[in-house]
Amino acid sequence: MSGEKIPVQLCKGVNGLDKVVLREPKGFSAEVYLYGGQVTSWKNNFGEEMLFASNKAIFKPPKAVHGGISICFPRFGSHGSLEQQGFVRNRFWSIDTDPPPPIRKSSSSKAYVDLIFKPSVEDAKVWPHSFEFLLKVALGPTGELLLTSRVRHLNPNEKPFSFTFAYQTYLSVSDISEIRIEGLETRNYLDNLRNKELFTEQQNAITFESEIDKIYLSTPNKIAVIDHKRRRTFVLKKDGLPDAVVWNPWDKKAKAMVDFGNDEYQRMLCVDAANEVAPIKLRPGEEWRGKMELSVVHSSYNSGQLVPQKVSTGR
Ligand SMILES: O=P(O)(O)OC[C@H]1O[C@H](O)[C@H](O)[C@@H](O)[C@@H]1O
């Protein structure tokens, strides 16, 4: 990173849990909890929240927080014996005081935090592999939110291990019925609501009128989520993460969740940058990287135009 880093502020969040507040000089901000390494807030320079967090979200271990961006590892989904979405989202992470050099030195971000997760003896009982997980969360110069994950296989005497991963990303939207996703049309997907059967997306642009839980395969590295009512578009860019999971619980499932308001499904949409379908295999000494960048642009946005001019507000 070039230039002087803006000091990281560590303060108390909900229930006294430690959080880091990132502030960028133009007024963008983000909050990252050490619990779960979870980004719980990302605001633009007008103080408008761009991530959804349920009013009923439970910030209390061992429950995972429903909202923001959850780090799902070493499993995403409910495959195998491990708990759904893995365990690092409900563990405490630490600030990494000696992070490795950034992947690309060109980044001009000065507001960032490096976190590290190392498994405990208890964790090793459920997933007996020697690893560390490094997470960098940064705010870019135009307010974009950048997450970089690195998983390292540490034991030279151990066999390779496999994992799946996701940035489970809850976007705040005006009204789910006004939302359109571009970038996933014509893609194949596995439908979690139909025993993971394989289908091909028929809609020209994806819109919403009922529960959805689809794993889109081999997706492009840029996906747009267009919010007509708020006139803003989220642009999600990803690297090393071929799948994109789109989830909204809709009314019935929302009612069944204790930490989710009955009507809150109308104001959220999860679009998860993921590697769910083909597990990643890591050999001793190897490192895996997966990146996601979220930005917001004004929605005078033409269909198919995935690199619109950036503006500093979602208005
Ligand atoms: O409640 P969680 O474990 O956070 O999972 C919430 C949702 O996450 C993903 O989007 C999955 O595809 C869904 O099947 C799951 O219901």
TrEMBL record:
Q: Name one GO biological process term.
A: carbohydrate metabolic process
Q: What class of enzyme is it?
A: isomerase
Q: Which GO terms describe its molecular function?
A: carbohydrate binding; glucose-6-phosphate 1-epimerase activity
Q: Which reaction does it catalyse?
A: alpha-D-glucose 6-phosphate = beta-D-glucose 6-phosphate
Q: What is the lineage of its organism?
A: Eukaryota, Viridiplantae, Streptophyta, Embryophyta, Tracheophyta
Give EC number(s), comma-separated: 5.1.3.15
GO CC annotations on file: cytoplasm
Q: Which UniProt keywords apply?
A: Isomerase
InterPro entries for the chain:
Aldose_1/G6P_1-epimerase, G6P_1-epimerase, Gal_mutarotase_sf_dom, GH-type_carb-bd
CDD domains assigned to the protein according to its UniProt record, in alphabetical order: D-hex-6-P-epi_like (cd09020)
The protein's name is glucose-6-phosphate 1-epimerase
Does the keyword section mention Isomerase?
Answer: yes
Native source species: Acorus calamus (Sweet flag)
Q: Which family does it belong to?
A: Belongs to the glucose-6-phosphate 1-epimerase family.
